[in-house]
Predict the structure.
Amino acid sequence: MPRVGLIVNDGKDLALSTADAIEARFTAAGHGVVRVSSSGGMVGFANPDQHLRTQGYRACVPGSFASDLSLAIVLGGDGTVLSAARMTAPIGVPILTINTGHLGFLAEAYLDQLDAVIEQLLAGDWSIEERTMLVVSVMRGEQRRWEVLCLNEMALHREPLTSMCHFEVAIGRHAPVDIAADGVILATPTGSTAYALSAGGPVITPDCAVLQLTPIAAHSLASRALVFSDSEPVTIFPATPERLMMVVDGSAGCYIWPEDRVLIRRSDDPVRFVRLADHEFFQVLRNKLGWGLPHVAKPG
């Protein structure tokens, strides 16, 4: 019997009722359905007074999920998609994202298309697009103190955010550089349209095998966003005596102390998005962020 997964934001009534309808349709078609809460991928923020999350990133995979799932359907907003990516990427299960939230930048389908989407899935008429994910590890000496998968970005800054500090950044084999700024963002191409965009970084199309380092409010005219190969691991040393706050994908993080370092590398396990049609990235930019829209009417 073929099996599909359902990853549901169970804090939203609309997502729950939609999950019931989808489960009924797939069960009637002879599929097994494995349903889990998206909270399993919400790592949250580590309490500095307690033990940190020393488990590896695979700890987010639900015990009921396995690589034999044909796909997992995700019901929620962009935050739910970020959570679902951590739950499925390590076992290679592709995800179809149906938006029941607000912006839905990462959504593939919407509720008014639900019947047609289910028919297309049952017919096997879909493809897969892989997106880069990062492994973000907090190291103290050789000890891993905290680790999580990241789809959008890792941001490291001081509390409060408006206080400048220094970061020593080493990219692969290259000589370390010092950045004086309120913080730094390391983003994937997917994350280039999120926090990094707001900090002045460029938009990067998802098919580019690169990462982006963007300072937050840099205290230098020479500090600008840097784009480089994603085959290069990145190590960030907090060159400041105070603790820093690290935030990953806006929903996970922990404190970084002067004796720590943050190690970021491309994951061997990309997230696999189900595509029901050709994915036109520029059209998504236009519809969601207004890219390329004319400010005045052009002459006929």
Q: What stands out?
A: The mean pLDDT is 90. The chain has two domains: 3-131+270-289, 134-266. The longest helix spans residues 13-28. The two ends are 59 Å apart (CA to CA).
